[in-house]
Structures are given as C-alpha cells and as structure tokens.
TrEMBL record:
Fibronectin type-III domain residues: 485-573
High-level lineage: Bacteria, Bacillati, Actinomycetota, Actinomycetes, Micromonosporales
Keyword annotations of the record: Carbohydrate metabolism, Glycosidase, Hydrolase, Polysaccharide degradation, Signal
InterPro entries documented for this protein: CBD2, CBM2/CBM3_carb-bd_dom_sf, CBM2_carb-bd_dom_sf, FN3_dom, FN3_sf, GH, Glyco_hydro_b, Ig-like_fold
Gene3D superfamilies: 2.60.40.290, Glycosidases, Golgi alpha-mannosidase II, Immunoglobulins
Keyword presence, Hydrolase: yes
Organism name: Actinoplanes oblitus
Name the record gives this protein: Cellulose binding domain-containing protein
Length: 679
C-alpha cells in the first residue's frame, strides 16, 4: 500500500581485521550490561529457505526502477524476488498501455524494463494483476505476453493488492470498480482470473489477497457477509489458488514498541495456516504464504528499521513464508527526525531518493545511497541461503533476539539482534544437537550509524559481545563432519486426543533409531525414541500447541538433521463432567465479545462454581465480564459464581476481550478443577 536497497561487496561493505571494530567491543561502562543466554537447537528444525525468500517491492512511479545501478545493488544484497507494479498502483495499472489513470507513471518503468532489471538482479518476479479496475482477460493477456510471447517464465501472480481496503469495511484506499465490494465478489473474480490466466500458462501460481491475523480487518464480519474476509475468500476460492498474499505493518509508537512486534509472528502465521487448512478445502496444505509488504512505523531508514527487517524476515521465513518483501526500494522523505543519533527521513525506501523534505529543512543523501535497512537485508543475504534449514533458538533477554540456520555442509549461522539502544550485551551461546569447532568464528556485523557491514574473526563459538543497536551474524563450523550421517526423516503427521499424540513419519533408512523432540524455547525436550516409524506421546496438556521434530540416529551414534516441523494442538476430553461452548460473537479488530455456555454433566449439582482459562498470548486481556465475577490474574482468568448448577443444566457468561496482536482464542477450560469438553 505504501510508496517505498541492499548491497554487499563494492557497496560500502567494510572489511576490517580489527576484532574490536568487528565485534563492537563496548566501553568498560557498557561491558557491565547483564549477560544474555542464547540457546541454539539443531534438533528443532523449522522451515527450509526457498529460492524466493528475500524480496523487495518496485513501483512504476519510481524513475530508478530497473536501472543497472539499482539492479546491481539489489543483486549485491542477495534479493531473490521483486514485486511489480507497486502496491495500490496495481489496481489502477494497465500493463499493455503502461498507464495508471489517477496516478503517476515514471518514464522507463514498463514491464519489459522491470523484467530486464529483475534478470540483471537474478530475481524472480512477483506480478500483481489489476483487480480493482482490470479484468480477467487483461490479466490473461499479461500472462500470455510475459510467458508465451517473451518467454520470461514469470511464475507468481497475485490478484490485486489490499482489496479489503475498498470501502467494504469502512476504510477506502484501494481502487475497486466492482459494484459489489464484498469478499464473496472478490473470491468469485479470483476464480475467474485464475481460470483465464492458467488457460494461457497452466504452470503459473496464482495468489489471493488475505489479511494478516491481528491486522485490520481480521476478525471483522461485515454486514451481509457469512464470515470474515479470509474465511469468505478461502472458502470460495481456495481450490483455485496456489498461495495467499498478506501484508504486515504492525505499528508501534516508539522504537522499543515496534521492535517488540516480531514476537507476534509465530502466532500470526499459525493462525493464518489454521484458517487456510480450515476453510480452503481438500489439499489446502499445498497453499503457500507470501508476505509481500512489511515495514516499521518508527526509524524507517535508520537502525530500528534495520533491526526490524532482520527480525521479521528471519521470523517469517522460519515459519514457512516463502517470500518476504520490503516496502519499498525507493519512497522519498516525509520529515526529518533524529533516531538513536542518526537522521531519519521517515522514508520507507531501502535506498535514498536524493530529495528533500517538503519545507527543504533537510535533504537525503545522494540518490541510491543505502539506508540502514538495506544493510540489514544484505546481512540476511549472507545469513539465509537457499537450502538452509532454520532451527530453533531461545533468548532469556527480550532485548536480544536470535535466529539460526543449519547449512547443508553442517555449518550453523546464528543471527543476533541487539535491540538495546544504550548497552552492549555479552551473549553466551549454548548449542544443542551440535558441537561447534574450537576455531574462532567469522562474525559479520552492522552497527548503528555504520556505512556498511564489517567482517572479521571475533570472539568464540560460545561467547560474543553485541554492540548497542546492532546485528551480528556468527558462522560456526561443526567440530567434525559426519559424512555418512542418516538423512532427515520426512514430514511427520499426528493423530491427537486431549492428552496423547500418535506421531508417525516416513522411514529414512534401515537399522535406525528415531528420536522425537518437542521444541521448547531453544532447548528441545526428548519425548521418546523408537526403532519403528511411529510413537505415541502421553501426558500432554489439553488445548496446548506443540511443535515436534523427528531425527534419525544410526548404530554409530550419528544423528540426522531434523525433519520438517509438525505443529498440532491437543483437544479436550471426549467426555467430562462439564461441557463448555465458547464463541467469538462480535469482533472489531482489537477486541471481541466472548460467549461461554457451561453445562454440568456431573453426577451432582454444583453449589457454586469456578471456571478457569488462560489467554494464549501476552497481548490479550480482559476488558469486562458479566453474569459472574471475573478476576484476571496475569494470563489466567477466573470466573466465579455462588449460583447452583443442577445436573444437566447450563448457564451462560460473557466478556469483552482485548487484543493487540493475533487473537489466538482460549482452547481449554476447567470447571471446579475438572477439564471440560470444549465444543
């Protein structure tokens, strides 16, 4: 929606041999900062990095689109996917005439120029077909020109951009000439577009626009609709699409608040995947997730933007999003402020536009000068390579986040983000399922105010010092290479009850023992081991989400890489002395009305009762409640009543719940100490 670089060697990357400069060794006063523990768990496998992971947005109003200088900067940064023709402009852009009625089109920004730049960068295109003012026939013609006439091989096509912003929910910024602005109408057109486009080239992948859980209008059901935007689109168009397309601008009024938002990613992607699986019909597992716009609200072209980019790209890719794309390559200044000692122009761009703010009180550096987020993207290009598998990490300090990948050659790369603007942090790195070499690791850093990345050998595999407001990429080798280690098992599956899960997986060889681990904050828990290809795990907690991996070990003790992850949620008891029916009956995007019906199935009447449940996330809270006494205690809520509840009788209570992130609903309820059946 918004109007919005990166570079490695030859683009301001500084190579220094001085360990103090590379590691950002702090002053004596700074060195007194509390030490931080980071755990890196090679047994906790997450998603594997694909060939479209690192992306950016191009826009037809940007005169630098496709120029050799920009294409080379993006190539240096490792960019793998570029999006065109640019956010909301996509819904007014007509590719054949290269016009956007009501908007500005810069010279030399046509589709062929874009593709020449993409090819020079070595990136795949993500193309937005015009839904707002276009037709399915127009989109099919674009596919024909791109892939039949020109042989560009453009695989990824989305139908429109932020089409929920067409006024249907009140706010209107997205062009939409359809008389019916509902998600039902959008879904029906997605089916028509996909049919017409795939008739030209059946190998393309078509995506539909959804909203990110926790972002407006998630949760809202508009008048006349049967469900939310996501529910309606997935139910009606799920069989016709190959991926969904979401944007994420999580906000934050201060750098600290903005830099805390990436903690919401795991829950948001979990909810989105759950919606896809629930509503998209048979074969929903084939539907991928693309994040084609993201940015931060504070410090956009200074260090908060860089730290946010590194955290968000890593977090989303680890959860299986196949591409993450920054908004934008260029955007232009808005106003000049000082953020952490650096001038910030409130510019969404990765690269400077070389222009001045409206009152000419401040001017950006020369055109195409990389801003801080560009350097963070460059570091991501060195961190997450195609074929690497993200693995689990954990940190005991909210101001230090960590991400890690395991490379096919056995190396581990650990990316650490110090969000503390004032203090350095000395980090103790603890490895699980991996023994690092004693050699001094190579460390690549990006410090606040730096002109580029700095690389040198520094610290040890077990200890690193992070400068204030900095990024550090540590690459460590294994103590020895196991050339004949078993292959990773295939993706597991599970059959789940309230307290058990029977986990099964494809065999990865003969004569192997399999170990099943539960991911747990960077230190996995061994749930069990077997020589078979299934394992029943008992004593689980009802209504709890679990993520597990399977690893194979041979007779020589060599351990395989982790399987792809499996996430499941345990249910409630099939029978219980109580039943709870919970519903979100009215949602407005940052709060909802919850309705709870309680039934006594027990052998005797209850003379007073207490219902207990917990908020699944830290950003949920109780606003108010009725028909009982509601008492919040941290993330636990107690609902008490002195009224009696006869055998077979039911009672209803309700509440207003507030949330400021993805709204994961409570899944387990306890009445007078008994876990209830939830329906």
């Amino acid at each position: 929606m918004h109007l919005s670089l990166r570079r490695r060697a030859g683009a301001g990357v500084v190579l220094l041999a001085l360990v103090s400069a590379v590691a950002g060794v702090p002053s004596a006063a700074q060195a007194a900062a509390t030490d931080t523990r980071v755990d890196v768990d090679a047994r906790a496998g997450l998603a594997t990095v694909g060939d479209t992971a690192l992306g950016v947005n191009h826009a037809i109003w940007d005169s630098q689109l496709g120029t050799p200088a920009v294409a080379d900067l993006l190539k240096d940064a490792g960019v793998q996917m570029v999006r065109y023709p640019g956010g909301s402009y996509a819904d007014i852009y007509h590719w054949e005439t290269h016009t956007a009625p009501g908007g500005y089109v810069a010279p030399d920004t046509d589709f062929d120029t874009f593709m020449a730049g993409a090819r020079r960068t070595g990136a795949q295109p993500m193309i937005i077909a015009n839904y707002g003012t276009g037709t399915a026939e127009e989109a099919a013609g674009w596919v024909r020109y791109a892939n039949v006439t020109k042989g560009y091989g453009a695989r990824y096509w989305t139908i429109g951009n932020e089409n929920y912003g067409n006024g249907h929910y009140g706010a209107s910024w997205e062009a939409d000439n359809h008389a019916d602005k509902s998600p039902k109408e959008y879904a029906e057109n997605v089916v028509a577009y996909a049919k017409a486009m795939k008739a030209v080239d059946p190998t393309i992948k078509v995506g539909a626009v959804l909203t990110m859980p926790g972002n407006w209008p998630d949760g809202i059901v508009a008048a006349g609709d049967s469900g939310t935007w996501n529910q309606e689109v997935l139910t009606r168009a799920g069989a016709a699409i190959d991926f969904v397309d979401v944007h994420w601008y999580p906000g934050g009024s201060t750098p600290a608040e903005a830099l805390g938002k990436p903690a919401q990613i795991q829950d948001a992607v979990y909810l989105l995947r759950e919606q896809i699986d629930r509503y998209a019909g048979a074969g929903a597992g084939r539907i991928g997730i693309s994040m084609t716009e993201t940015n931060v609200d504070v410090g956009r072209n200074t260090q908060p933007g860089a730290l946010f980019l590194a955290d968000v790209y890593s977090g989303l890719l680890a959860q299986g999003v196949f591409t993450v794309q920054w908004w934008n390559v260029h955007n232009g200044p808005d106003k000049a402020t000082t953020v952490a000692g650096q001038t910030d122009f409130n510019d969404f761009g990765l690269l400077s536009s070389g222009t001045c703010v409206a009152d000419n009180s401040a001017c950006e550096p020369a055109l195409n000068t990389p801003f801080a987020p560009y350097h963070a993207l460059s570091l991501l290009g060195d961190f997450a390579h195609t074929g690497d598998q993200f693995i689990g990490t954990g940190s005991d300090d909210a101001l230090v986040s960590a991400h890690a990948v395991r490379r096919p050659n056995g190396d581990l790369a650990v990316l650490m983000v110090n969000k503390d603007p004032d203090a350095a942090h000395t980090v103790t790195l603890n490895y699980h399922g991996f023994t690092p070499s004693a050699a001094t690791p190579v460390v690549e850093t990006f410090a606040n105010g730096a002109d580029g990345l700095t690389t040198a050998s520094a610290g040890t595999a077990g200890t690193q010092t992070l400068a204030p407001y900095s990024l550090a990429l540590v690459t460590v080798h294994p103590s020895r290479t196991e050339s004949n280690a078993p292959k990773a098992p295939g993706r597991p599956a599970a059959t789940v009850t309230d307290r058990t899960a029977t986990i099964s997986w494809p065999a990865s060889g003969s004569g192997l023992k399999y170990e099943v681990y539960r991911q747990n904050g960077g230190v996995s828990e061994l749930l069990g081991e077997t020589t078979g290809t299934s394992l029943t795990v008992r004593n689980l907690v009802p209504g709890r989400r679990y993520t597990v991996n399977v690893l194979a070990r041979d007779g020589a003790g060599r351990l395989s890489p982790a399987s792809p992850p499996l996430t499941f949620t345990t249910g409630s008891p099939a029978t219980s002395a109580c039943t709870v029916k919970f519903r979100d009956t009215n949602d407005w995007g940052n709060g909802y009305v919850g309705s709870i019906d309680i039934t006594n199935n027990g052998p005797a009447a209850l003379n007073g009762w207490t219902l207990t449940f917990a908020w699944p996330t830290a950003w949920q809270s109780l606003g108010s409640g009725w028909n009982a006494t509601w008492t919040p205690d941290g993330r636990t809520v107690r609902v008490t009543s002195d009224a009696s509840l006869a055998v077979g009788a039911s009672t209803s209570v309700g509440f207003v719940g507030n949330y400021s992130g993805p709204n994961v609903l409570p899944a387990s309820f306890t009445l007078n100490g008994t876990v209830c059946t939830t329906v």
